[in-house]
Write a structure and sequence with these properties.
Layout: H1 2-10, E1 17-20, E2 28-35, E3 50-58, E4 61-68, E5 70-78, E6 81-96, E7 102-118, E8 125-133
Antiparallel strand pairs: 1-2, 2-3, 3-4, 4-5, 6-7, 7-8
Length: 136
Amino acid sequence: MDYVMQSLQMAYQEDIVVKKHDIHIEKDELLLYVPKENSDITLSKDKSNAYKIEIYSLDDEIYITKTNGVSLNNKMLDGNIIDFKIETQKEKINYVNSEGKLEEKELLKYIEIKFTVDYKIRGIKRDYLIKYNIRR
Protein backbone atom coordinates (compact mmCIF):
# COMPACT_ATOMS: atom_id res chain seq x y z
CA MET A 1 0.00 0.00 0.00
CA ASP A 2 2.89 2.34 0.74
CA TYR A 3 4.40 1.60 -2.69
CA VAL A 4 1.08 2.31 -4.42
CA MET A 5 0.61 5.61 -2.58
CA GLN A 6 4.21 6.68 -3.23
CA SER A 7 3.85 5.81 -6.93
CA LEU A 8 0.63 7.83 -7.19
CA GLN A 9 2.32 10.84 -5.60
CA MET A 10 5.32 10.63 -7.95
CA ALA A 11 3.30 9.85 -11.11
CA TYR A 12 2.56 12.14 -14.01
CA GLN A 13 -0.88 13.19 -12.75
CA GLU A 14 -2.44 13.73 -16.19
CA ASP A 15 -1.60 10.15 -17.19
CA ILE A 16 -3.15 8.27 -14.25
CA VAL A 17 -6.00 6.12 -15.59
CA VAL A 18 -8.23 3.28 -14.51
CA LYS A 19 -9.02 0.96 -17.40
CA LYS A 20 -9.84 -2.64 -18.21
CA HIS A 21 -6.85 -4.97 -17.99
CA ASP A 22 -5.41 -5.83 -21.43
CA ILE A 23 -5.60 -9.61 -20.89
CA HIS A 24 -8.13 -10.08 -18.09
CA ILE A 25 -10.73 -7.75 -19.58
CA GLU A 26 -13.27 -8.27 -16.79
CA LYS A 27 -10.81 -6.74 -14.29
CA ASP A 28 -9.96 -3.09 -13.72
CA GLU A 29 -6.38 -1.93 -13.40
CA LEU A 30 -4.74 1.27 -12.31
CA LEU A 31 -2.16 2.47 -14.84
CA LEU A 32 0.35 5.23 -14.14
CA TYR A 33 3.75 6.48 -15.23
CA VAL A 34 6.51 7.44 -12.80
CA PRO A 35 9.53 9.48 -14.00
CA LYS A 36 12.79 7.55 -14.30
CA GLU A 37 14.67 10.71 -13.30
CA ASN A 38 13.41 13.20 -10.73
CA SER A 39 14.31 16.05 -13.08
CA ASP A 40 11.80 14.89 -15.75
CA ILE A 41 8.73 17.06 -15.25
CA THR A 42 6.88 16.11 -18.44
CA LEU A 43 6.12 12.71 -19.91
CA SER A 44 7.67 12.21 -23.34
CA LYS A 45 5.35 11.20 -26.18
CA ASP A 46 6.93 7.74 -26.42
CA LYS A 47 6.94 7.45 -22.59
CA SER A 48 10.59 6.37 -22.66
CA ASN A 49 11.43 8.64 -19.71
CA ALA A 50 9.04 6.84 -17.33
CA TYR A 51 8.34 3.52 -15.69
CA LYS A 52 4.92 2.08 -16.43
CA ILE A 53 3.17 0.75 -13.31
CA GLU A 54 0.03 -1.40 -13.38
CA ILE A 55 -1.92 -2.41 -10.27
CA TYR A 56 -4.63 -5.06 -10.49
CA SER A 57 -6.09 -8.11 -8.77
CA LEU A 58 -6.60 -11.63 -10.10
CA ASP A 59 -8.43 -14.26 -8.09
CA ASP A 60 -7.35 -13.61 -4.51
CA GLU A 61 -4.03 -11.92 -5.29
CA ILE A 62 -2.88 -8.33 -5.91
CA TYR A 63 -0.25 -7.68 -8.58
CA ILE A 64 1.94 -4.68 -9.23
CA THR A 65 3.77 -4.71 -12.56
CA LYS A 66 6.60 -2.24 -13.14
CA THR A 67 7.83 -2.14 -16.72
CA ASN A 68 11.31 -0.92 -17.59
CA GLY A 69 11.91 -2.50 -20.96
CA VAL A 70 11.16 -5.90 -19.40
CA SER A 71 7.92 -6.57 -17.56
CA LEU A 72 8.44 -7.57 -13.95
CA ASN A 73 5.29 -9.20 -12.58
CA ASN A 74 5.33 -8.86 -8.81
CA LYS A 75 2.65 -10.54 -6.76
CA MET A 76 2.34 -8.19 -3.78
CA LEU A 77 -0.35 -9.93 -1.75
CA ASP A 78 -1.00 -13.62 -2.31
CA GLY A 79 -4.17 -15.28 -1.14
CA ASN A 80 -7.10 -14.27 0.99
CA ILE A 81 -7.88 -11.00 -0.88
CA ILE A 82 -11.61 -10.37 -1.01
CA ASP A 83 -13.59 -7.79 -2.94
CA PHE A 84 -10.77 -5.82 -4.64
CA LYS A 85 -12.21 -2.66 -6.24
CA ILE A 86 -10.83 0.41 -7.94
CA GLU A 87 -13.31 3.27 -7.88
CA THR A 88 -12.98 6.71 -9.42
CA GLN A 89 -14.76 9.99 -9.65
CA LYS A 90 -14.40 12.32 -12.60
CA GLU A 91 -15.00 16.05 -12.91
CA LYS A 92 -15.65 18.31 -15.88
CA ILE A 93 -13.39 21.28 -16.42
CA ASN A 94 -13.33 24.10 -18.95
CA TYR A 95 -10.12 24.94 -20.78
CA VAL A 96 -8.93 26.95 -23.75
CA ASN A 97 -7.69 24.71 -26.57
CA SER A 98 -4.76 25.44 -28.90
CA GLU A 99 -7.09 27.36 -31.25
CA GLY A 100 -8.22 29.68 -28.44
CA LYS A 101 -11.69 28.11 -28.15
CA LEU A 102 -13.28 27.21 -24.82
CA GLU A 103 -13.85 23.47 -24.47
CA GLU A 104 -14.94 21.08 -21.75
CA LYS A 105 -13.22 17.83 -20.84
CA GLU A 106 -13.63 15.20 -18.18
CA LEU A 107 -10.70 14.51 -15.86
CA LEU A 108 -10.09 12.08 -13.06
CA LYS A 109 -10.73 13.70 -9.67
CA TYR A 110 -9.77 10.86 -7.32
CA ILE A 111 -9.07 7.14 -7.08
CA GLU A 112 -10.06 4.72 -4.32
CA ILE A 113 -8.57 1.25 -4.02
CA LYS A 114 -10.50 -0.96 -1.61
CA PHE A 115 -10.01 -4.55 -0.59
CA THR A 116 -10.45 -6.91 2.33
CA VAL A 117 -7.89 -9.39 3.66
CA ASP A 118 -9.21 -12.54 5.32
CA TYR A 119 -6.42 -13.56 7.68
CA LYS A 120 -8.01 -17.02 8.20
CA ILE A 121 -7.25 -16.70 11.90
CA ARG A 122 -10.14 -16.56 14.38
CA GLY A 123 -12.35 -15.07 11.66
CA ILE A 124 -10.26 -11.87 11.42
CA LYS A 125 -10.91 -9.78 8.32
CA ARG A 126 -9.50 -6.31 7.75
CA ASP A 127 -10.56 -3.67 5.25
CA TYR A 128 -7.93 -1.56 3.48
CA LEU A 129 -8.45 1.68 1.58
CA ILE A 130 -6.25 4.01 -0.41
CA LYS A 131 -7.88 7.26 -1.49
CA TYR A 132 -5.84 9.55 -3.68
CA ASN A 133 -6.89 12.98 -5.00
CA ILE A 134 -5.37 13.82 -8.39
CA ARG A 135 -3.31 17.01 -8.25
CA ARG A 136 -3.85 19.65 -10.92
